[in-house]
Amino acid sequence: MIVINPRVDTLHPDLIKSYWEIAPASLGHALDSGLDSSINAVWKPVKLVGRALTVQAYPQIDTAVSKALELAQNGDVLVMNRSGESRIANWGEFAAIGAIEVGIIGVVTDGPATDQVALRKLGFPTFSRGTSAVTIKRTDIPEGGVNVPVTVGGVVISPGDLILADEDGVITATPEQATLLLPFCQEMEAREIWMRKELKSGSNLLDLRKAWPLPIPPNRT
Q1: Are 106 and 79 in contact (CB under 8 A)?
Q2: Strands 2-4 and 106-109, bridge-based pairing
Q3: Residue pLDDT, tens place only, 26-59
Q4: What CATH number should be reported for the domain whose range is 2-173?
Q5: Which one-letter DSSP state was computed for residue 215?
Q6: Are 79 and 99 in contact (CB under 8 A)?
Q7: DSSP-derived pairing of the beta strands 106-109 and 126-128
Q8: Domain definitions of the chain by residue range
C-alpha cells in the first residue's frame, strides 16, 4: 500500500527567502538537527533552501517518488528515506530533469545517487550518501509514502519542514523553530561578517570575541 497525505505548507515564503542568507552552520549553533556527515553534496559549491516534500521509498520500488512529483510545487525539496539502501541509486540525471519540470529545487536522500557530472551541469542540488553505478530497476509496486515523517541521516523530518543545506551539510527545522531562530541566525551572520572585516584590519580574535560575544539562541536561554 502507498500512503499519500495532503501537503503541509506552513513555512512562509518570506521565511524561506530569509534563510537563503543563512549558513546551515549558523542554524547548527542552535539546533542539533543536522543530518549525519555521510550525507554530502554531490557537487560543490551549492546552496539549498526549501520546504520538505517527504518520501518513504524502498530499495527497488520507486512508486512513491513518482507520486511525490505529482504533488510537487515550486520550491519543494524532495527528502527521501531509502530504507537502508546503500548500493542502488534511485536518483540521477533524468530524475532531476523530471523534478525540475515540476518545480522541485533539490533532493536529500539517505541512499546513493548517480550521474554526478550531469547533476552538476543541471545545477540541481543533490545531497546523498555517496554515489553508485548500480541503479534502480523500476517497478510499479504500490508501496511507500508521500508527505509522511521520514528519518534521514538520523533525523526525523516532517512534511513542510525547512531544509537548509550547503557544501558543509544538511540541517532541518520545523516551521516554528525556523521562525523563532531567524533573528539569532541573522545576528550570527552579521557577527561573522564584522569579525572577518575587523580581522582583516588587524584586530585580535580574542578581543573581537569579547566585544561581540557569541549570541545565545532563544531556545537555550
Answers
A1: no
A2: unpaired
A3: 999 999 999 999 999 999 999 999 999 999 999 8
A4: 3.50.30.40
A5: P
A6: no
A7: parallel
A8: 2-173, 180-220
